[in-house]
Every structure is written in structure tokens, then in C-alpha cells.
Specification:
Blueprint: H1 6-30, H2 36-39, H3 42-52, E1 67-70, H4 76-86, H5 126-139, E2 146-151, H6 158-169, E3 175-181, E4 184-185, E5 188-189, H7 190-194, H8 199-205, E6 209-214, H9 218-230, E7 236-241, H10 264-276
Parallel strand pairs: 1-2, 2-3, 3-7, 6-7
Antiparallel strand pairs: 4-5
Helix pairs in contact: 1-3, 1-4, 1-10, 3-4, 3-9, 5-6
Length: 281
């Protein structure tokens, strides 16, 4: 039985498709950026911003808004495209990605763009920031929730495991960390460079509630976040099994598309494929 109405499911799929189209367009326009790990996270951010989180451009200063931290800050295109889809900025501004004096730099800046909760890019730091925000909610007696998206190569960083231990110790049940587990990082397969498995068992050992899901199945994503809301006394770690470059055939599962921009012909092919998958642009 579906956990989400048919109309809402169709909307979220279309939102994710729009986000993917904007990702490839902005990276192509800049001739720079990280498309692979941005495309793999599009479905997750579509559900977070259009179904799960209490956020919006009218709530940027609302103390009760939910918080999202893009710990793998190099995947900024997915965040910018999502914020534009949500109305925090115009889609026309996405064309300024990575340009001098643009608000849309290669890594997100809290100082430049409303809707960015934390400047990120130095890998491994986002979960600690999320811990602090979750603790602040408890101290301030507020009900907001904190979501952090981590990269699988990123969690090779030692600081992640200190943060994981702290979150479990302090029983931060208003915190959800999502692992974009696409198995590829800039130098190759995660398993070959520094294997993080068995990652679910490791987070369970740090006293986290662990959920595994298909990171491209909207119904599973919705259900995972719904389950996380029911968890009391421990943080939730969601292992999202994803495909790097999802939605663009020549980018899928291709390490070389970690940080390379498509040329004009490749962009046309990517947009044609995405439109065929249900986009309306």
C-alpha cells in the first residue's frame, strides 16, 4: 500500500526531474561543477523540500523552520536547483553558477544565499554542525528537525565518526543523517579507496536507528522520513542506495562525471533524456 497520494507522488517525481534538468544546465553553463553526486541526490531533496520539511522562502528567519545541511558541499548544484524550484531564487539566477560575484558559488555560502543553513565544502564537517543545531532545538525547546546529507566518500573522514558518536550519546532524535550511497568518489570506487562497509552496522553500533532505502524510489524515501519521525531516544541514519549521475545515461555509474561539465552536445542529450523521463521543459 502506498504511503503517499498518487497526485503527490507524481508531483515529487516531476520536481526531481526539474531539479536534474537545472543541475545539468547550470554545470554546463559554468563549464565547471559536480554533476554526478548532485544528480544522485535529486530525489532525496525533492522529497525533503516538497513533502518532509517545514521550510520555504517566507520562513528563512522562522526559528521553527526545519534545517537542511548539505555536508557534501561540492554537490551544490542539487541544493541551488532545489532552492530555485522552491522559490528561494529565480531559475534565471542559476545561470550565474560559479561566476565571480554570484551568490551561487561552487560550495554553498550561508552569507550569500538565504536558505543555505551552513557554508559547507570542507568534507566531514556537516554532521557536527547538524548535531549543534539539533542540540540547540532541545535547549530552546523547539520542535524543528535537522537533516544532513552526507557523501559516501565523505564519511571516510574521521570527524564524521566523532559526530556520529556524539549524536548517539546525546540521543538526538530530532536529527536525520542521509547517506548518498552511490559507491563512487572522485578517485574511483569507495570500496577500493577506503571501504565504509558495513556502514549500517557501524551506525547502529553508535546508537543510531538505521533505515535502508532505494534513494530513487519516491515512496521509499517518503516512508523512510516518516519512520524517522517515530523514532525516540536516538538519531536516525538513512542509507540511500543511489546511482551517481542518475537520469543521464552516459553519467550513470561513471566516476569520470564526478566533477566534469557536459559540452553542448552532451547537454542536449541529457535534457532530451530527462524530458523523456517525465519532465515538461
Amino acid at each position: 500500500m502506498s504511503t503517499i497520494a498518487e497526485g503527490k507522488l507524481a508531483e515529487l517525481k516531476q520536481r526531481a526531474n526539474h531539479i536534474r534538468q537545472e543541475i545539468v544546465k547550470m554545470v554546463a553553463a559554468a563549464n565547471s561543477g559536480h554533476p554526478g553526486g548532485s544528480l544522485s541526490a535529486a530525489d532525496i531533496l525533492a522529497v525533503l523540500y516538497f513533502h518532509e520539511m517545514n521550510v520555504g522562502p517566507e520562513k528563512v528567519n522562522d526559528p521553527d523552520r526545519d534545517r537542511f545541511i548539505l555536508s557534501k558541499g561540492h554537490a551544490s548544484p542539487v541544493l541551488y536547483a532545489t532552492l530555485a524550484e522552491k522559490g528561494y531564487l529565480s531559475k534565471e539566477e542559476l545561470a550565474t553558477f560559479r561566476r565571480i560575484n554570484s551568490r551561487l558559488q561552487g560550495h554553498p555560502s550561508k552569507k550569500l544565499l538565504p536558505g543555505v543553513e551552513q557554508s559547507t565544502g570542507s568534507l566531514g564537517q556537516g554532521l557536527s554542525t547538524a548535531n549543534g543545531m539539533a542540540l540547540a532545538a532541545r535547549l530552546d525547546k523547539r520542535e524543528y528537525r535537522v537533516y544532513a546529507l552526507l557523501g559516501d566518500g565523505e564519511i571516510q573522514e574521521g570527524m564524521i565518526w566523532e559526530a556520529a558518536m556524539a549524536a548517539g550519546h546525546y540521543k538526538l532524535d530530532n536529527l536525520v543523517a542521509i547517506l548518498d550511497y552511490n559507491h563512487l568518489q572522485i578517485d574511483g570506487n569507495v570500496e577500493d579507496i577506503m571501504d565504509i562497509g558495513p556502514v549500517a552496522d557501524k551506525f547502529r553500533a553508535f546508537n543510531w536507528h538505521v533505515i535502508e532505502m532505494d534513494g530513487h524510489n519516491i515512496e521509499e524515501i517518503v516512508a523512510a522520513f516518516a519512520e524517522a519521525r517515530t523514532v525516540k531516544g536516538k538519531p536516525t541514519f538513512i542509507v540511500a542506495h543511489t546511482i551517481k549521475g542518475k537520469g543521464v545515461s552516459y553519467m550513470e555509474n561513471a566516476c569520470g562525471w564526478h566533477g566534469v561539465a557536459p559540452n553542448e552536445e552532451q547537454l542536449k542529450q541529457a535534457l532530451a533524456e530527462l524530458c523523456a523521463q517525465g519532465g515538461d521543459k
